[in-house]
Fold this protein.
Amino acid sequence: MQTSLHNLFEEFLKKPSIFINKEALTPKYNPRQILHREDQIKLLAQILAPSLKFEKPSNVLIYGKPGTGKTVVTKYVCAQLELSAKSKGIPLDTLYLNCKMKKVADTEYRLFAYLCSLLGEQVPPTGLPTNEVYNRFVKVVDSKPRMLIIVLDEIDALVRKQGSDVLYNLTRMELENAKMSFIGISNDATLKDSLDPRVRSSLSQEEIVFPPYDALQLRDILWKRAEIAFTKGAVDEVIISKCAAYSASVDGDARKALDLLRIAGELAERENANSIREEHLNEAIKKMETDSVLEIVRKLTKHSLLVLYSTILLSKLRDVLTTGNVYSFYCKLCESIGLNPLTQRRVSDLLDELDVLGLIKAEVISKGRYGRTREISLSIKGEILDKICELTKEVFGI
Ligand SMILES: Nc1ncnc2c1ncn2[C@@H]1O[C@H](COP(=O)(O)OP(=O)(O)OP(=O)(O)O)[C@@H](O)[C@H]1O
Ligand SMILES: [Mg+2]
């Protein structure tokens, strides 16, 4: 190892850290106290309570944007329910399944095999007829009187991969000894529209909505975590409030707010500062904004990326662009990389899509008796533009 790096690592290890427990700012951490979700916790507990009398609770669909506490609340209520059941000798289990996880809910076979494994019944990963895996699941579930509550987190991923049939089979399973209920969690509010009506009615007997957090709620959540994560004095009220206000103004996502605080902490630490200052937070905000724009750009189709790239390059030459300007530049780019250009009509639609994504502005301007025209300009600026150009060059090898 080069001596300079060796010294850097040694220095890092010697320095007192501003973090005591950085994990408290990551999704891995299980908070002991869940703040500002009293209504949702109570409602979910009320819905599930009949299971303690061995009555089948209603199925529940939980909705809310990312980072609104759906998973953490559901896990908390399920854990409390299991504790109560245990103390009363009621055979109740809750099974948690994240449908987005690879190899868990891709096929009906995998889903039932995974559920079997959660109940201690091993099924080979492939090779059996799906029906056989399904029958094994029914058999193990119904082997004794028991109450099962199955949490299907990110259920929209399951529906996208497999449609509604598997949910139909699950929710209509005929059992003699056991009772089974479902909690579906989704951050896609349109999920219900894509469900088969029969599945929709049985799965959403009850619904709970998780709204985004506001700045004051996020401030409290951040404080609680900061107390665990940082050394005393490493973060103050101004930083927490600013972090909360920014996150609330973007989307009210607690996960992102915690991420932001962690990144600000890491930047402060890198500078050997013993507390987070506003400039660290501002830099962290910039980093998160860049990352989220790049995430959107990475998902663009090749043609959309070329249209955006054309807009960026042309914007360096003039302030106001028309669809025609962008289109002719885009055609030249297509030619230079051997791609068949789309029609101007189609590119005009792509410009609208880029506008919806917040990357450009495509405004229709009235020119009086000369008709109307569309003015195209960029909605993003600064370093991110260079990053998008680099990414485009990488994709097309130009
Ligand atoms: N009310 C709260 N109190 C304390 N921590 C919270 C609260 N709400 C969310 N968090 C924390 O924020 C992060 C995101 O929460 P969670 O995973 O429950 O969100 P989600 O609604 O399930 O998001 P997604 O739709 O992306 O799965 C977790 O680290 C969680 O511990
Ligand atoms: Mg979740």
Notes: The longest helix spans residues 278-298.
